[in-house]
Amino acid sequence: MGARSAIRDAIVQVYERRLARALVGADIPRHVGVIMDGNRRWARAIGLEDVAHGHRRGADKIVDLLGWCDDAGVSVVTLFMLSTDNLSRPQPELHALMQIIEDVAVDLSRPGRRWQVRAMGAPEVLPPETVAVLKQAEEDTRDRPGATVNLAVGYGGRQEIADAVRSLLAEHAERGTSLEDLVQALEVEHIAEHLYTRGQPDPDLVIRTSGEQRLSGFLLWQTANTEFHFTDVYWPDFRRVDFLRALRDYSARHRRFGS
Predict the structure, then answer these.
(1) Is residue 259's pLDDT more than 70?
(2) Annotation-wise, does 187 bind a ligand?
């Protein structure tokens, strides 16, 4: 069994190096979104009753992913960590998940890391202590030179659009703009300027693990022209070779931007 595993690992390493060479000079996405799915199923597949072990193992994978993104030249990474729908999960699981998310934010913001952490979502649906940890991570990493890492926590795509419209209306109300004038002047980019990701490029590539092929409300506005890569691998088992496959598929596509 050990010999077979060693041979398999050697084959994967050779394939991984081949993929990496093939990507030299290829079109690389500036912004990658990741729907990190399959933590609970991974835990159950190996016989663990406490699915928090799956979430913890998935959290441990994040630094690896960000390192791969750095190596590839990706400048923005958005991680879908907790949707508003997930808030209906059993309380013990939700409590453990919040602690894991806080630990991730602390880890990404510790000295020696290069990434700029940004929280995106509806803070009012989260525990105050989680909101405080996310805000502190943002503050601690504000001036770092590396990639921007968006942590989508308490996030819902429809909620984001509603919040953007609400923010837009409030801004124009302060200016004294009449509703009629706003209706006449409103353009798509005006809403985009009030999204959680304002100032960032839209995602070029979204990766979803675990075999599911849907967005689940992830970046609904921003993904109008995004390429998607779906893999059957559960998130805790996601490897560099899987990431490179996603980049290879992306680089091979002719992006038509809706045309």
Answers:
(1) no
(2) no
